[in-house]
Design brief:
Layout: E1 8-9, E2 17-18, H1 19-25, H2 28-44, H3 51-72, H4 82-99, H5 107-122, H6 141-153, H7 160-177, H8 184-195, H9 198-201, H10 214-225, H11 233-250, H12 255-270, H13 276-289, H14 294-304, H15 336-345, H16 362-375, H17 381-400, H18 408-428, H19 434-461, H20 474-481, H21 496-503, E3 507-510, H22 516-522, E4 528-530, H23 540-553, E5 558-563, H24 567-576, E6 580-590, E7 597-606, E8 637-640, E9 647-648, E10 653-662, E11 680-688, E12 693-703, E13 713-721, E14 727-737, E15 741-742, E16 751-757
Parallel strand pairs: 3-4, 3-5, 9-16
Antiparallel strand pairs: 1-2, 5-7, 6-7, 8-10, 10-13, 11-12, 11-14, 14-15, 14-16
Helix pairs in contact: 2-3, 2-6, 4-7, 4-8, 5-6, 5-22, 7-8, 7-10, 8-18, 10-11, 10-12, 11-12, 11-13, 12-17, 15-17, 16-17, 16-18, 17-18, 18-19
């Protein structure tokens, strides 16, 4: 064989593969794409019960997809310059190693990230016997991705995927800046400035997941900007759709980026003459977008009744959550004016951007750059499209959250836009004296540089886990450094007397908000019952699911781990759920280190005794007095009206017969206290057809005449009064425990009747 002959490999079912040709196409991010693919493909293979088989298939399919990607990828034109690895990689690596040996113990990590990753890497998100061990069981693909590196490299170095994602993003920014900055050294310095924002660097070495989608979003934007000049337009369209779908799969909030980039693609596609074939590819791209999202959406829909559970439950209702979306009102704009101006105002409202309350102002700089990019005359199409993407992304971010960690893509695009505008100024000031020209161009770049200096100061001070840097604790840094690469099994770090306690755990009760991550690392195969979040106990279906989970662990050794400062809250949560406690053992959890110790308490937990459903006996009194509010699961009624009123005259009074059935497993006492509290009454409320409650709409009341045992019913006469104004209305009939609340507010379903008032 000639020494210059290309090396070809034969893969079954595929044509000869020119290895050298593929190597010429390969770039930094192509290797990472295989790991990204694995996180999503593993979800498709959740039904495969055998771990070895599932992961073997996942690895094989991921590498096959990586091969297909390289096979269809065009030749790389200008590669990432060598100076990039010095100017960009080294500073990012320096930021990474500042705190990397100190294990990450930030709130989100202990609250959900570790548990999500450990569960999903082993199979379906919920184990048999689980009851929502984390408050938001969202798509775990991002936690799976960090989990893959955690299992390969150990707990400390598992966070290196964030650094790699940042470097990958930098290589794409380098391509985005090439039309504006020609010299490699200068462009690499610009890339570093674009990446250098504090909230990006705060996450460089911890298990937060916001950075993982950045290279996917930036590459999709680059493909959109280059669409008109590409000789593989259809391939770029499909690949960008897959990238954007993966970014939304990694975190649902990334939809605020996916939509603006999709708009840029639409502008590029439909500004040229299109044919039926292109329209077909657009339709296929829309389908491909959902491929990374589909497996988890289907799984969580089957488990809960909503593909985005528990978000937007007022639109896609699950019987396991109240009809509201989780929303933290601490963050973001407060009114319409602030929403429109939030990117501009953000620098002056750092306390409403995140828990850290720190901000160097990139979004404010970017807002001004966006306005200029859209309004300046004779500006290039590429710059204007970037400005459009930033504007749409900023507005969507303001409307949906205003929380800074969800605006990282916008911050990066802001930086790219500043350099695009600097190039515009440079080209438009050709006739200026050279010193004046440099001053004018340098102004926006100096402003961006000052923001980066402030960001560097903030990164030196803190990060999400509050860990020290090597400069703050050099001795501790050296002690922790020895565990790097040796920190894969948390149980192995525990003293022998604790290992025995942990090994006997058959199931966990998650009673605190900062403990499920530790529980998942110590015993990832044990089912976990989450009781710390009251939202999961508002609906009867959720309470029944919890009761089933309690029955599943009955007879097993059940424990709860909680932090010292959460002990009182944990004990209260256990009591609220009817669980009793046994021995409480203090434990010092050595968190992948002999020196990083977490003071916790191991609480022995016992399920409640089985409760027999009460039945009316021959000597049971007909009427008893309630001593207090009903139990949470007792607010369950079935209401019927045999002859519902369909038409009434305005203001007409009518007596209807209402059948009320006790659909719970508890006795309803017919009488309350002398002041009227705790009586059970049937009552009605009038609503307009649009759903708005009529003012002073509370109408009749009828007291239940006798105790109702489970399954029993009674018929009550209820006088109703039609509204005074003709129209179409809804008559709602429900049961109320006076002084406590309506049954519908505790998960019961009231009876609603449409009535025409004439």
């Amino acid at each position: 064989m000639s020494g210059s002959a290309p090396l070809k490999l034969r893969v079954a079912g595929l044509p000869h593969v020119n290895v050298f040709a593929l190597s010429r196409k390969m770039e930094f991010g192509d290797v990472l794409l295989v790991f990204y693919a694995a996180a999503f493909l593993r979800q498709y293979l959740w039904p495969v019960g055998n771990q070895f088989v599932a992961w073997s298939l996942t690895a094989a399919l991921s590498m096959l997809l990586g091969f297909i990607h390289l096979r269809t990828k065009p030749e790389v034109g200008e590669r990432t310059p060598r100076v990039f690895w010095v100017v960009v990689l080294l500073p990012l690596l320096f930021v990474y190693v500042l705190r990397a040996p100190f294990p990450d113990l930030s709130f989100d990590v202990l609250n959900q990230r570790l548990l999500q990753g450990e569960r999903a890497l082993r199979g379906p998100q919920f184990l048999p016997g689980d009851f929502f061990p984390t408050i938001l069981p969202l798509n775990p693909s991002s936690d799976m991705l960090t989990g893959i590196f955690r299992h390969i490299l150990g707990y400390r170095l598992g966070t290196i995927i964030n650094l790699l994602a940042l470097v990958w993003a930098g290589t794409i920014i380098d391509k985005l800046l090439r039309p504006f900055v020609k010299r490699d050294l200068l462009r690499s310095a610009c890339v570093l400035l674009v990446l250098f924002t504090e909230h990006i660097l705060f996450e460089a070495n911890n298990y937060m997941v916001d950075l993982l989608a950045l290279p996917l979003e930036l590459e999709a934007l680059r493909l959109a900007l280059n669409y008109g000049e590409s000789d593989r337009k259809h391939r770029d369209l499909l690949f960008a759709a897959l990238l954007l779908g993966a970014s939304v799969g990694l975190k649902l909030t990334n939809v605020v980026v996916a939509l603006p980039v999709a708009v840029i693609f639409a502008v590029r596609v439909f500004s040229a003459r299109i044919d039926g074939r292109t329209l077909g590819y657009v339709a296929v791209a829309c389908l491909i977008f959902f491929l990374p999202i589909l497996p988890h959406a289907f799984y969580i829909w089957r488990e809960t009744g909503s593909p985005v559970f528990p978000l937007y439950n007022s639109l896609i209702r699950s019987s396991l959550w109240s009809n509201v979306s989780p929303y933290d009102g601490r963050w973001g704009p407060r009114d319409t004016r602030e929403t429109l101006l939030w990117p501009l105002m953000s620098a002056w409202r750092p306390g409403r951007l995140s828990e850290l309350g720190l901000y160097s102002g990139r979004l404010t700089i970017g807002f001004v750059a966006t306005v200029l990019g859209l309004l300046l005359p004779q500006i290039g199409k590429r710059t204007r499209l970037i400005a459009l993407a930033v504007l749409l992304g900023s507005l969507m971010w303001s409307v949906t959250s205003g929380y800074v960690r969800y605006a990282l893509f916008v911050e990066i695009a802001d930086g790219v836009l500043v350099f695009a505008l600097a190039r515009y100024v440079w080209d438009r000031t050709r006739n200026f004296p050279r010193p004046l020209k440099f001053v004018v161009v340098a102004l926006p770049i100096c402003l961006l540089s000052l923001q980066c200096i402030l960001a560097a100061t903030l990164v030196r001070q803190t990060e999400w886990g509050g860990r020290p840097t090597v400069f703050d604790d050099a001795a501790g840094y050296g002690r922790e450094l020895r565990w790097v690469g040796r920190d894969r099994d948390l149980l192995a770090f525990q003293p022998d007397e604790y290992k025995g306690l942990i090994r006997q755990v058959d199931a966990w009760v998650v009673s605190g908000v900062k403990s499920n991550g530790v529980e998942a690392l110590l015993r990832p195969d044990a089912p976990a019952l989450g009781i710390a979040y009251d939202e999961y106990f508002e609906k009867p279906d959720a309470r029944r699911r919890f009761a089933d989970a309690v029955e599943f662990v009955r007879g097993k050794r059940v424990y709860s781990l909680t932090l010292h400062d959460e002990l009182d809250a944990s004990l209260q949560a256990l009591r609220r759920r009817g669980l009793t406690t046994g021995q409480v053992t203090p434990v010092l959890v050595c968190f992948f280190s002999a020196h990083r110790r977490v003071h916790m308490l191991l609480i022995e937990v016992f399920p409640p005794e089985k409760r027999e459903t009460p039945r009316r006996g021959p000597m049971t009194p007909d009427v008893t007095e309630a001593k207090g509010p009903l139990e949470g699961d007792a607010f369950q009624a079935i209401i019927k009206v045999p002859a519902p009123p369909m038409r009434l005259r305005a203001g007409q009074k009518e007596t209807i017969q209402v059948i009320v059935k006790n659909a719970s497993d508890y006795v309803w006492s017919a009488r309350g206290q002398s002041d009227g509290k705790f009586f059970l009454n049937a009552g009605d409320v009038w609503f307009e057809a649009t759903g708005n409650k009529i003012v002073n709409s509370l109408d009749g009341r009828t007291t239940i005449p006798r105790d109702l045992y489970p399954g029993e019913e009674t018929t009550l006469p209820l006088q109703i009064t039609a509204p005074a104004t003709p129209g179409e209305y809804v008559l709602e009939i429900d049961v109320v425990q006076e002084g406590v609340g309506w049954f519908k507010d505790r998960g019961s379903t009231p009876l609603r009747i449409r009535v025409q008032v004439e």
